[in-house]
Amino acid sequence: MVAATRSAHEILGEFPANFLPMPDYPTYEEAMTLAEPLLKPFKFPLFQLTISGRTFIPSKPIGINVTQDGAWFFAENEALNVVGTGGSPEEAVLDLERHIVHFWQYYRSLQDSQVIGDAVHLKKLFSNLLAESACEAA
């Protein structure tokens, strides 16, 4: 039995060589230089949303923050409490657009008496957020 006071280095020293990292594996530092660089976070305004061939125009531009965490990209609007995710910045923004349109439709379908707490504020934000464009998207 291994005594609890022994260090991890002492314990690892007793392992057979085939249990230790292989010598041709890159070190952490080498792996970080080989990995794709992380996307620098950026912001941009969204002037129109196109979902399933329907175009929606916001009453004012919607500010979008795009960030990356490992292989995942996130597009968010903190005021609307909505986040989209994807394998690329474009996928994350499209996912965010879908969520915005969904919540716009959802909150418009509710009566004021059906919401409480944060939903009261979000209903006000979403209710007048978008207008559907009369022309079909290409």
Overall description:
Helix 3 crosses helix 4 (118-127). The termini are far apart. This protein has 138 residues and is α+β, with helices and mostly antiparallel strands. The longest helix has 21 residues, at 89-109. It has a four-stranded antiparallel β-sheet. The chain has a three-stranded antiparallel β-sheet with strand order 2-3-7, with helices on one face. It has helices at 8-13, 28-34, 89-109, 118-127; strands spanning 42-46, 49-51, 54-58, 62-69, 72-77, 82-86, 130-132. 13% of the residues are buried. The model is unreliable at 1-9 (pLDDT under 50).
Secondary-structure map:
Elements lengths: L7 H6 L14 H7 L7 E5 L2 E3 L2 E5 L3 E8 L2 E6 L4 E5 L2 H21 L8 H10 L2 E3 L6
Antiparallel strand pairs: 1-4, 2-3, 3-7, 4-5, 5-6
Percent of residues in helical segments?
25-40%
Mean pLDDT: 81
Structural class: alpha+beta
Proportion in β-strands: 25-35%
Strands, total number: 7
Shape: globular
Sequence of strands across the biggest β-sheet: 1-4-5-6
Cα gyration radius (Å): 24 Å
The major β-sheet equals: 4 strands, antiparallel
Which consecutive residue ranges, at least 5 long each, have pLDDT under 50? 1-9
How far apart, in Å, are the first and last alpha carbons? 70 Å
Order of helices and strands: HHEEEEEEHHE
Given the structure, what is the number of helices? 4
